[in-house]
Task: inverse folding
RNA sequence: GCGCCCUUAGCUCAGUUGGAUAGAGCAACAGCCUUCUAAGCUGUGGGCCGGUGGUUCGAAUCCACCAGGGCGCGCCA
């Protein structure tokens, strides 16, 4: 459902009707017990507070246990001695030495040693890592779920395209990034709502309606030429793409000639504009939602700008802001250095966004008295705030970057600073084919629609590839490479790793007839025999999954999941490849049932983690490659 | 002119929010494999992290300035 009938709007002047909400960033986030690193951090912290009983909380919060980059440094390292040196008035080396002494007695720690400027390097007993396998197999895809979100309500708004035509590549990145980010936040413990804002008010959709009306007249057999028609259209005839022909036909079928003059000319807009507009928008939204469905995106809420305007919500918000003294009639300075040629001082209805960190105050009304896009968007965000979200995230194209500070200001004003606003900007995607860029032109009709792209390379390749870059960086999307079945294509490489895991487990079923090799049973298998470096490397990677989820969610960077999965797949393929030269290193060894079962537990756990990562990305974990 | 984002190996990009000797893929070079798990595998070389200062135990990461690229800059959304 779209906009609710009567949004209850928060009063900025009233602060106490907001329920207390948990802080967005808890000072001491609840420890995730299945995160090995988080657990060891607790161990280190306990030792540290024993050495420094009056350790300040803010220092304790800076203590971290991280994976080492160099295996010579052990498995994990902590900065505890360095960050607490100042507060303890002791040199880092002395604290490190004391930590080493206490930690060496630990159950999971094989050795602890001081190194470098004050690091304490920890080498864990292999058992500590292997103990993760039953945890992973028991928890299944829930392994890696974080609690940092603590149920904080987040609204992620994405796509939000003008419903003026089919979706194209430009919309696609935001759709994928938004959807994956929402999934990621949800895995990190946030209460997430996925939302689409339909920009179905304003000049663009009016132009769309005229274009659809032209197709309608054509369908009824008008004698007008396109030139004659276009000369009557305010602002000229836009949206000349073929995709509106069908809409015109549907309009003609539904309304016959009743929307035109008797001689099939242009009737007065009062007679048809709203009807045609609504009809066309509905048709476009049907198409867009179908495109999104094929892309694997299904949002929880679709909000309509038009309905928002119709309910007068925008006017109410402006009145309310005016009552709070945040609206005034004024004249803006021309932009410094580059004054538009037609610049003239003009009084406008302005929002005091500068009071909330913006550079200039922003206009809310156009000269014809209608609302600016910003004004309606303020009302829309007020609506979202009234629905009780703690955090609002908008996924925007990079060309909207300049828009962020004013929206941030508006949210601050509307929520009395209680609701956090954040934007994720998506840079442009350049489509490449045969080594050449594919030029996009809406008018020439040569743009690549999302549907074409999905037909050509498939949902999984589109989604994964869109997530192989930081969304803030420009991206080349090479149509030839995303279908390559080689290591340089991460989609293939990761899916292949999962398929190989499943393949091993299928083959194992023949080796152990009558034994159910499901995750529950494998969780009970002793894994002491997993001693080799490649095995332990793989398990260490699996141990990184929870903190990867947490860090990616906190940074709001879903692409990190893609990179993690690529590394995980590499570790697995390496293990698999050992069996190529030496068949005694393959997973399945009929003369070693116990060792084989242990390896199967590792393989099954790997499959679980790959699967749960792919689920976040919205990519199918395939059972076999075809 | 101002603001925001970006600059890392020949190319495309990571870099665990300030940690130790900066990583991966491609390309290059050198081997292996000729299909029982090769839609390949192993190894090597490759760097002034755009530049200059600063902050501190410690900087690709934070700050200032500069250079180059992208985006934006009153009634477009």
Result:
């Amino acid at each position: 459902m779209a906009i609710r009938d009567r949004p209850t709007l928060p009063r900025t002047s009233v602060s106490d009707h907001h329920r207390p909400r948990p802080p967005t960033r808890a000072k001491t986030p609840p420890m995730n017990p299945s995160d090995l690193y988080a657990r060891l951090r607790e161990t280190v912290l306990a030792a540290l507070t024993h050495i420094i009983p009056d350790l300040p909380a803010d220092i304790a919060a800076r203590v971290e246990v991280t994976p080492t980059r160099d295996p010579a440094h052990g498995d994990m390292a902590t900065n505890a001695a360095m960050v607490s040196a100042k507060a303890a008035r002791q040199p880092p080396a002395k604290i490190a030495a004391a930590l080493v002494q206490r930690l060496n007695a630990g159950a999971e720690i094989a050795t602890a040693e001081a190194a470098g400027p004050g690091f304490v390097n920890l080498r864990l007993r292999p058992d500590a890592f292997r103990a993760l396998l039953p945890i992973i197999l028991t928890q299944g895809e829930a392994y890696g779920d974080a609690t940092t979100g603590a149920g904080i309500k987040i609204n992620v708004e994405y796509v939000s395209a003008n419903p003026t035509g089919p979706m194209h590549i430009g919309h696609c990145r935001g759709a994928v990034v938004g959807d994956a980010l929402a999934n990621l936040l949800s895995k990190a413990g946030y209460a997430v709502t996925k939302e689409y804002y339909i920009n179905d008010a304003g000049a663009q959709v009016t132009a769309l309606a005229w274009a659809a009306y032209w197709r309608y007249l054509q369908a009824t057999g008008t004698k007008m030429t396109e030139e004659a028609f276009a000369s009557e259209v305010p602002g000229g005839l836009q949206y000349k793409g073929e995709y509106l022909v069908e809409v015109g036909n549907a309009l003609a079928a539904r309304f016959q000639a009743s929307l035109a003059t008797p001689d099939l000319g242009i009737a007065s807009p009062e007679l048809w504009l709203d009807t045609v507009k609504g009809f066309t928008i509905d048709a476009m939204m049907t198409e867009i939602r179908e495109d999104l469905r094929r892309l694997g995106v299904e949002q929880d809420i679709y909000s309509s700008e038009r309905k928002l305007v119709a309910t007068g919500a925008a006017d109410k918000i402006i009145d309310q802001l005016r009552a709070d003294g945040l609206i005034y009639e004024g004249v803006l300075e021309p932009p410094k250095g580059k004054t538009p040629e037609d610049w003239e001082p003009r009084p406008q209805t302005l929002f005091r966004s500068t009071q909330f960190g913006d550079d200039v105050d922003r206009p809310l009304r156009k000269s014809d008295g209608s609302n600016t896009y910003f004004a309606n968007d303020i009302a829309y965000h007020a609506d979202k705030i009234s629905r009780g979200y703690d955090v609002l995230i908008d996924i925007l194209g990079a060309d909207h970057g300049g828009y962020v500070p004013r929206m941030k200001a508006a949210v601050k004003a509307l929520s009395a600073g209680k609701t956090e606003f954040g934007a994720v900007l998506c840079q442009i995607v350049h489509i490449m084919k045969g080594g050449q860029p594919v030029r996009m032109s809406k008018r020439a009709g040569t743009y690549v629609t999302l549907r074409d792209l999905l037909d050509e390379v498939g949902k999984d390749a589109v989604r994964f590839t869109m997530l192989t870059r930081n969304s803030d960086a420009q991206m080349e999307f090479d149509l030839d490479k995303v279908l390559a079945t080689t290591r340089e294509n991460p989609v293939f490489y990761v899916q292949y790793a999962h398929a190989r895991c499943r393949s091993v487990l299928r083959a194992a079923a023949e080796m152990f007839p009558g034994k159910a090799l499901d995750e529950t049973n494998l969780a009970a298998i002793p894994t002491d025999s997993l001693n080799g470096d490649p095995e332990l490397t793989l398990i260490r990677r699996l141990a990184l999954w929870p903190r990867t989820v947490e860090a990616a969610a906190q940074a709001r960077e879903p692409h990190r999941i893609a990179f993690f999965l690529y590394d995980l797949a590499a570790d697995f393929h390496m293990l698999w490849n050992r069996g190529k030269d030496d068949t005694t290193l393959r997973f399945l060894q009929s003369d070693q049932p116990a060792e084989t079962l242990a390896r199967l537990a590792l393989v099954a756990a790997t499959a679980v983690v790959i699967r749960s990562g792919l689920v976040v990305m919205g990519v199918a974990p395939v059972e076999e490659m075809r």
